[in-house]
Amino acid sequence: MKRIGIFFASTSGNTEKAAWKVRDALGLSKEDQHNVMHANAATLEKYDVLIFGIPTWGVGELHEDWEGFLPELKKVDFTNRMVALFGLGDQEGNPDSFCDAMGLIGKRLKEMNATLIGYWPTEDYEFDQSEAREDGHFIGLALDEDNEPEKTDQRIQEWAKSIWPELD
């Protein structure tokens, strides 16, 4: 089985809690979950598959810890490396930038030749614009703990099942 690592940034705790749920849904260990504030390129390179938890701050902005982690991403060879993304946003408060940070990281990863997995349908969401939308799907799992926390567990379970075949 491929070695899978989860990397996230979180201030309010929502992305960290989502990372725990993703970890549990995939049956991963606590040792394979990392806050990017305490990680580096060497930590990333220990894994065959990476899962990134990315909150959107303000109006479509990267979390400061992800912003600070970008130089570490540039040190990693992402050629043929699979990366799954999940992002948190606020559909009602920021409908014009819902989960934009996930889209920003996703675009950078594609430029570095990463293979993105885990695209997710946009149909069950109410937003106007998202940098994370591509061809009618999000480039990863979109979560909204501000307005739809009751949907988070089911979305994570379904997403985990959808990516599992590519992780095995």
Topology:
Elements: E1 4-8, H1 14-26, E2 33-35, H2 41-45, E3 49-57, E4 61-62, H3 64-73, E5 82-88, H4 100-111, E6 115-117, E7 120-121, E8 133-134, E9 137-138, E10 141-143, H5 152-167
Parallel strand pairs: 1-2, 1-3, 3-5, 5-6, 5-10
Antiparallel strand pairs: 3-4, 7-9, 8-9
In brief, what are we looking at here?
The chain has 168 residues and is of the alpha/beta class.
Low-confidence stretches: none
The CATH C-level class name: Alpha Beta
Strands, count: 10
Report the biggest beta sheet as strand number plus sense, adding barrel if it closes.
7 strands, mixed
CATH-defined fold name: Rossmann fold
**What share of the residues lie within helices?**
25-40%
Keywords:
33% helix; 168 residues; 5 helices; Rossmann fold; alpha/beta; three-stranded antiparallel sheet; seven-stranded mixed sheet
Account of the 3D structure:
With 168 residues, the protein is an alpha/beta fold. It has one domain (4-167): Flavodoxin domain (Rossmann fold). It is 33% helix and 23% strand. It has helices at 14-26, 41-45, 64-73, 100-111, 152-167, and strands at 4-8, 33-35, 49-57, 61-62, 82-88, 115-117, 120-121, 133-134, 137-138, 141-143. Strands 1, 2, 3, 4, 5, 6 and 10 form a seven-stranded mixed beta sheet that branches. It has a three-stranded antiparallel beta sheet with strand order 7-9-8, with no helix packed on it. α1 packs across α5 (152-167). The longest helix has 16 residues, at 152-167. It is globular, with a radius of gyration of 14 Å.
